[in-house]
Specification:
The complex is a heterodimer of chains A (334) and B (227).
Chain A (H helix, E strand, L loop, with lengths): L1 E9 L5 E10 L4 E5 L6 H8 L7 E6 L2 E2 L5 H6 L1 E5 L10 H5 L1 H5 L4 H14 L16 H13 L5 E5 L7 H18 L2 E6 L2 H7 L2 E6 L3 E6 L1 H6 L4 H7 L3 H5 L19 E3 L5 E4 L8 E2 L5 H10 L4 E5 L5 E6 H12 L1
Parallel strand pairs in A: 3-8, 3-9, 6-7, 7-8, 13-14
Antiparallel strand pairs in A: 1-2, 1-4, 4-5, 9-10, 11-12, 14-15
Helix pairs in contact in A: 5-6
Chain B lengths: L3 H4 L12 H33 L3 H13 L2 H12 L3 H25 L3 H9 L4 H31 L12 H9 L3 H29 L2 H4 L1 H9 L1
The chains are: A alpha/beta (334), B mainly alpha (227).
Chain lengths: 334, 227
């Protein structure tokens, strides 16, 4: 657990970067720090590994005040990933990843063996090991950056806009891989981003900052979307937050009508839905593990206004009409 | 004027006083000593200024002032102060090579990507580790550039040693002019020029060897072409 206890950072010249921040980032979870530029999110992140020291207040890791610890040793125990990766251009990919293990006293050989495994872990084949950073694409560099931060197996990772230097398609891939990795590893992660969508997608918790280094709201993504603390947060999370908040609710609780109620739905011999006899293309199906957002999208885009649910074998096992869906959504708000 | 002096085999015999081998050796000796002293002074100062950002005015001003000092004038001043001998020559040559090494070291350090230094600190490198494992290797191509330019200058300028009674290839110029033997002057000029070019080639090879392929872009281009 990372604790900010009434932390203030005032830069020489008098500008306040962080204003009385008190917040707890839970262990094993990803907390996204999000806000407009100049809101103190990066300064807050950098106070965790003492790249910046607070003017007053304390930052604690598992109850230990970081200001009492040796800077270099503290940092070696905290993974650090920055925008555009910050890889060492004069070292091979493998030696980049091996950096921290070598710093903490592993032999170069041990460190390289471990580094090779990590490359695999972040989805890079061994042929990348001998390359130099300049030979990699932005997305590949960022993967190496993540592997390098993971190399000493630190319980905590700090990530400063780790995905903002890559194009949207690659960013989407990296998000998916990163979520999978975090699922396996369960690190305590603090991630700075200016992109609220990224914060909502990746964060278990989201801390929204406003200008002047003030924490505007701290909560789960769903809380942010459904109960924004004030106009600033509402504005910041965006206009379609109602629709987006549906991403966090499972379709499992959604009441369905029996398939037999829809003779217009054509099934094949195995019971799998094929098409609407009257209107043609099905437009897609959903399962009980999908979110309400998926169902809503299907119901809206379906030519007959009906979303079809299938079981694990792909057999149609229910339908949702759009007015039933709207009723359910209204029910959910109460 | 002709090449008779240069191509006279007698002048190339080993161990002959005033022959080419002996003159080249002493010429290289003065140059190497000047370069060595220059590196010992300029490299640490440049690294310190580049690493800390403190005293950058020193790097810039020393660079400019040093460049405008005439080496021959400085040498004469040193001789009047210290008397004849090796020391005044070494001081003059050191003052010649310090500016290019100092300014290139400082410039190379300044050009190191801040993000990379930030990452190095953030991963837990101590200040000296950041300096020697990250900043210095990354600044090395620029530093080597300054060193090569200093080496060229010192080879060309070490001829002044002869004007205060020492050896080196300057002997051919001074003595040749004194007795109107232009063939000898020409020989001295050609050997100095060839020596300078040869040294630069050797240093280019050294640079390939000490600079990481990740920085020079050689490996990079080949690999990208292959994919």
């Amino acid at each position: 657990m990372i604790t900010f206890d009434d932390v203030v950072k005032v830069y020489p010249g008098g500008s306040t970067a962080v204003d009385h921040l008190t917040v707890e980032l839970p262990t094993g979870k990803l907390t996204a720090l999000v806000g407009p530029s100049g809101c103190g999110k990066t300064t807050s992140l950098r106070m965790i590994n003492r790249m910046v020291n607070p003017t007053s207040g304390r930052v604690l890791i598992d109850g230990q005040d970081v200001s009492q610890q040796d800077e270099a040793k503290l940092r070696r125990g905290i993974g650090y990933v920055i925008q555009s990766a910050g890889l060492f251009p004069h070292r091979t990919v493998l030696d980049n990843v091996a950096t921290v293990p070598v710093l903490v006293g592993k032999t170069r050989r041990e460190a390289r063996t471990a580094a090779l495994e990590l490359l695999d872990r972040v989805g890079l084949s061994p042929e990348f090991a001998k390359r130099y950073p300049a030979q990699l694409s932005g997305g590949q560099q960022q993967r190496v950056g993540v592997a390098r931060a993971l190399a000493a197996d630190p319980p905590i990772m700090l990530m400063d806009e780790p995905f903002s230097a890559v194009d949207p398609v690659v960013r989407g891939q990296l998000h998916a891989e990163f979520l999978r990795l975090q699922n396996d590893l369960g690190k305590t992660i603090a991630m700075v981003t200016h992109d609220i969508d990224e914060a909502i997608k990746l964060g278990d918790k989201v801390a929204v900052f406003r200008q002047g280094g003030i924490l505007a709201q701290f909560g789960t993504p769903q809380e942010l979307l459904e109960k924004p603390a004030d106009d600033f947060v509402a504005e910041f999370v965006g206009r379609d937050r109602g629709l987006r908040s549906l991403s966090f609710d499972s379709a499992a609780s959604l009441p369905v009508q029996p398939v037999s109620s829809q003779p217009d739905l054509e099934l094949d011999d195995a019971g799998r839905p094929v098409r609407w006899r009257s209107a043609g293309d099905l437009g897609g199906v959903f399962t009980a593990s999908d979110s309400l957002r998926v169902v809503t999208d299907l119901a809206i885009s379906s030519p007959v206004g009906i979303a079809v649910r299938v079981d694990e074998q792909g057999k149609a096992d229910g339908v949702v009409r759009h007015h039933d869906l709207v009723d359910h959504l209204l029910e959910r708000r109460r | 004027m002709n090449f008779s002096y240069l191509f006279d085999p007698e002048h190339w015999e080993l161990g002959v006083p005033g022959g080419f081998p002996q003159l080249i050796l002493s010429h290289l000796g003065y140059s190497a000593l000047g370069l060595l002293l220059g590196v010992i002074i300029a490299l640490p100062v440049g690294l310190y200024i580049g690493h800390t950002g403190r005293g950058s005015f020193l790097a810039i001003n020393a660079g400019n002032a040093g460049r405008s000092l005439p080496t021959l004038g400085l040498l004469m001043l040193m001789v009047t102060l210290l008397g004849l001998g090796l020391l005044p020559v070494l001081i003059a040559l050191t003052v010649l090579v310090v500016p290019p090494i100092l300014t290139s070291t400082y410039a190379g350090m300044r050009a190191v990507d801040h993000g990379v230094v930030d990452a190095a600190k953030g991963m837990g490198m101590r200040p000296l580790q950041v300096l020697f494992r990250v900043e210095f290797p990354m600044a090395l191509p620029v530093i080597m550039g300054g060193f090569r330019s200093a080496a060229l200058q010192v080879i060309a300028t070490a001829t002044v040693a002869a004007s205060v009674g020492l050896g080196g290839l300057g002997r051919l110029l001074i003595d040749g002019l004194a007795v109107n033997d232009y063939s000898r002057v020409l020989a001295g000029a050609v050997v100095v020029a060839v020596l300078a070019v040869a040294l630069d080639l050797i240093l280019a090879l050294v640079q390939r060897w000490v600079v990481s392929p990740g920085l020079s872009g050689r490996r990079v281009r080949r690999a990208t072409a292959a994919t």
